[in-house]
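Most newcomers find our protein records easier to grasp once they have seen one. To make this concrete, we reproduce a full record directly below:

===
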Amino acid sequence: MDVRVVNQPLHQVEADVIVLPLFEGGVQAAAAELRSVMSQAADDFTGEYGQTLVIYSGGQIAARKVLALGLGKEDKLDIRKLRRAAGMAARAARETAAKSVAFAVPAVGSMPAGQVAQFMVEGAVHGLFRFETYKSEQPTKPNVEEIVMVGQEIESGVTYGRIVAEAANLSRQVNWTPGNHMTATKLAAVAQDICEQAGIEIEVYDKQGCQELGLGLLLAVNQGSVEEPRFIVMRYKGNGGQGPWLGIVGKGLTMDTGGISIKPSDGMWDMKYDMSGGGAVLGAVKAIGELKPKADILFVVPSTDNMPDGGAYKPGDVISGLSGKTVEIRSTDAEGRLILADGLAYAAKQGCTKLIEASTLTGAVQIALGPVRMGIVSNNDEWENEVYTAIEEAGERGWKLPHDQEYYEFFKSPIADMSNSGTARAAGSTVGGLFLMGHVGDVPCVHLDIASQAWNHGANKFEDEGATGVAVRSFVRAAVRWAEGNR
């Protein structure tokens, strides 16, 4: 999809549809050159948030149609609502069979025009994404081929918005792909393609390589599978490789059956999305390769599936990980924290001074926070606050969960350094996150539990059912802030 910027009067913009965002009760505030067209909507358009109304221009302007978009009350509009509104408008425009869609960039309070344009582009590119790989029939409405942003001093915002939205859509494509088509080997091939295009160094370790590295926890999870694991390491040297290094790690669990502690069959088909953290890392790699921040970043994705067979690891087993810590297996369905423990330990041993990790780690986060916010667990308040700020600036949302020392008692083991599952169901998201902290030593680390946000369980006016690409934007914003000196 082509995204470009023009600075010209709205009535001169050539497009199948031009989107005119308006606040509640703002029809009369429409740009003068569109007022005659909008006068047709005076009785039908209120500007309520998310409302869309298509009006034929009748040749009065260059665009064939105007799509009025309701932004609601101006004092209630934030960057997340702005992004969603733009996505709704783009999808509504597509329903008219539009191939080119222009957006008038509105004035929104004290928000810079570039920031407004950024989040509108993000929303439009996100909303228009379709996962069509396995469809034998073409969609009834054609894909939009061009987005035009109309405004002044918005070029950098549009560029950033396009880059992160396309990166999130790459993550969605990967996370949506079924497990028989997205094995660990194929995930590594996707990573190699991304790195080749971006000029980023990559090392991929096969099963023997994992053994040589000492990735005991990753290998244990892989025991029940006929598919080999892959340990994917990517190095972006935006600061010449001289450091300091930021480590970004994501869970690449391509299919999770629960292993011997098998999941209920109902809903198991969705567990292809259990690699959403790893997909977010790959999306971030793509975006960082284009944005080129002046920073050194190590990206790590441990990848396997989790299957039950006669050779699978079992509840009661004790496994030693790369950190040197031993783990008693209480549940083979708490596998994500095992492969991540090795991934985080590797990043720490490679000299990363700060770590961020994202994963669909616990079902408990859905109970605690629902689909509104991701859970955040850390071993360092200062670094947690920095990452939290990046999440907010990226237009995503998190909630800081506690990390009191008493919570470490929840996963103590009588026969190993720790168990991979708490003895009770209490504080599941906190316990899962703190388990990871037990494998990074003193390195400041932030864990993002995205399990309740990574998959949209029903299509809506903003996006299709399926993978959401959550955490890509947060990873990228954190990396940019890191490069800017907020280390």
